[in-house]
Amino acid sequence: MSLVLRLSGVSARLGGRDILHQVDLDVPAGRRLGIIGVNGAGKSTLLRILAGVLQPSAGEVQIGDASGQLQNLRRLPSRERARRIAFVPQEEVVAAELLVGEMVALGRVPRTRPWSRGGSAEREIVRAALDAVGLADRIDVPGDQLSGGEKRRAVLARGLAQDCPVMLLDEPTNHLDVAWQLRLLQVFAERAQTLVATVHDLDLALRFFDELAVIGWPAGLDPSTHPARIVALGPPTDVLSSRHVAAHFGVGSVQVPHPQLDQSHLLIHPREESR
Amino acid sequence: MSRAIPGRRLPFWPLTAVLTLASVVSVVLSLAFGSERIPVGEVVTAVTDRLTGEAPGTWDIIVWELRLPRALMAVVVGAGLAVAGAGMQTLVRNPLADPFLLGISSGASVGATAAITTGFLGGFGIYAVSTGALLGAIGSALLVYLVATAQGGLTPLRLVLSGVVLSSGLSSVASFLVFLSGDPRAAQSVMFWMLGSVGGATWEKLWIPAFLVIVLAIGMLAIHRWLDALAAGSDTAAALGVNVAALRTILFIGLAVLVGVLVAVSGGIGFVGLIVPHAARLVVGARHRVLLPVAALGGGVFLLWVDVLARLAVRPQEIPLGVVTGAIGAPLFLLLMGRGQYKFGGER
Question: What protein family is recorded (chain B) (predicted)?
Answer without folding.
Answer: Belongs to the binding-protein-dependent transport system permease family. FecCD subfamily.
